[in-house]
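Incident review: delayed structure delivery

Summary: a single-chain prediction request sat in the queue longer than the usual turnaround. Root cause was a stuck worker, restarted by the on-call engineer. No data loss occurred. The affected request and its eventual output are reproduced below so the record is complete for anyone auditing the incident later.

Affected input:
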Amino acid sequence: MSMMSMATRCRSWVRSMLLPMLVVAFCGTCTIGPFGPQDDAIARRDHVVKPAGPTLPPSPTEPPATPIPPTVAPPTVTAVPPPPTAFPPSPTAALATAPVPPAPSPPLPTPTVPAPTPTRPAPTATVPLPTATPAPSPTNARPVRPAPGQYGLTAVASGFRRPLYLTAAPGDTDERLFVVEQDGTIVTVRDGRRQESLFLDIRDRVNARANEQGLLSVAFDPDFAANGTFYVYYTDSRGATVVARYRLAPNNPAVADPGSEEIILRVEQPYSNHNGGLVLFGPDGYLYIGLGDGGSGGDPQGHGQDPRTLLGTILRVDVRHSSTYVVPSDNPFVGQSDRRPEIWAYGLRNPWRFSFDRLTGDLYIADVGQNAWEEVSFQPASSKGGENYGWKVYEGSALFQGPPRAGLTPPISEYGRQEGCSVTGGYVYRGRQLPALVGNYLFGDFCTGFVWALTPQSDGSWARTLLFDSNAQITSFGEDADGEVYIVDRQGTIYRVTAAG
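Output delivered after worker restart:
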């Protein structure tokens, strides 16, 4: 039997047997349904990909989400009706099959601080929520839709244990990549080599027992080169979400000091899945925090549409002028007693990964779906915040539960179960190595390994192009100091997106 035949049989087994198990583990209690009838659609190839390297043994997965012990009290829930405007259908619903043309949380902080001079304009009042698909902020040249088969992956480093995130530190003269491992460690990559010494080890306080728990991301202070400060997002021993500040070791600036922890935020989680997982500094210097709806399946406690809880939201807080955090005075819900002032946007199921375009400041949010649809939402840099992205009234642009609701912001792109089951958000490519890809938003799917590009069109719609099959369990994308884009494979390898060869 040839190696190619063996590889084909192996991939068939993975998709028919292993993939459904991964779906249950990664998506919690999502009901995906049988994969047999969809197998041909999932396996169909209309692209060429550079080999992604040898297959590594899959990491063990855990059973479906279970409730956290009763010591964790879930937040109080009452839905708040949104403004009465129309929810338009997503203009991208047909893109998934269109052919590609050839070419309880901590108490509310009472102080607020003036907003620093931001790149995202500071609002003075809450404004009506958008009802049309937003267009990207203007740039000198409109991105060109890429052709499939032109891009692939090059392995950068391997040997990681359940890697979940990758980033670079501002002003880091060593040009290191920082890789977050789920068990509670951060490892560095330098000159293409995984360094043996750990940058941070907090396994003594991280709970990584469930599939969506653990050390999930890291964000470096914009002035990291001067102050040596960074922030992490992890699950503690009780199952709560913790955002904490750390500093470099005083006697060794090449590593962090685990004893320097200052807890910024702690959010109780009713279940062990849909806990979000990202901390990220925006172009305005504020820290954005992504929190899922709290888990189980179908948002049983209604957090997505309840802005009185921090669950199901993206927060925007100032962590650079306080030992904990303060709420920026220009956040959209400041002064509203029925909404948490930390919230920047809500109506999200599990915004596992989101990112800012480093050139325009536009925000892209990949929200993991429930039973049928994965979605990508868009917030232009001119937004004053306050968007409601619809969950659980809608899953993507499809009605999920309850009557149609007005005043919600639809996704710019979505795809169904024939193409994947857990979206992983990426980045707008701004590197130099792939000029034809500049301005395109890259994202992928954890279950199938597919990688797509989203390209804004002149009519306000977004074209989605399947670039390649990564053969990876994509837990995250990453971006280095030069804007080159990476893929993090949960099986232990880091890849860089390159031209196919």
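Verification: Confidence is low (pLDDT under 50) at residues 1-14, 16-132.
Action items: add queue-age alerting; document worker restart procedure.
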